[in-house]
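Suppose you are handed only these lines of text.
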Amino acid sequence: MEEKKIAGIKATEYIENNMIIGLGTGSTAYYMIEKVGELTKLGLNIKAVTTSQGTADLAAKFMIPLISIDEVDSIDLVIDGVDEIDGQFNAIKGGGGALFREKMVANIAKKVIWIMDSSKLVDSIGGFPLPIEILSYGYSHILKELEFLSLHPVLRMRGGVPFVTDNHNYIVDLHIGKSFDIKYVSEKLMTISGVLETGLFLNMCDLIIVGTGYEAKVTENKGR
Ligand code: 5RP
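From them, the structure of the protein bound to ribulose-5-phosphate can be written out as follows.
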């Protein structure tokens, strides 16, 4: 079985009856959502908050009961993917452009599980371009500021026009490279007017599940 599928299915073992579940976005999350659909069909009683319109459409297809983030005080468990993660559980997310909602959902979660294939484990993050969500208004000036900071910004495009997020904003991918000061960049970015959120998810998970070969390797984050 594919590594992503192994990890996605394994994560559903942590779901309990009557939980509010946060459903992540991406190809690994797909397998988890598909399995959650099967479980709800068999009688599992949960409600799900989604991290993107794509995930909401998928969950609806699998008849998973949905609830809006504003109707819940907290989320019992979030299961989401990552683009890169280091040994200190610092991750880059947002390859699918859903980082803003993914971070909001993770911020109100009691437990966060990240699921992935083995290629996502790295010594240091930054090989994968760091996505950030920015306002479309004045985007050219935001890009100039990011350029000035030597963060090598590239406005994400789709079909010849800027990619637009579910929140009607733009995504900029920062080609920073591996050896950057994670904390400094994270804090600096949030001081720029028009930067709404970054894809840096620093020590925000409780557990990672990595699909390797024929099994799922579960690692607890003891530093949280
Ligand atoms: C979307 C994300 C995804 O979780 C991340 O891109 C991983 O995707 P995949 O499971 O398809 O590799 O952050 O914004």
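What can we learn from it? The mean pLDDT is 97. The two ends are 31 Å apart (CA to CA).
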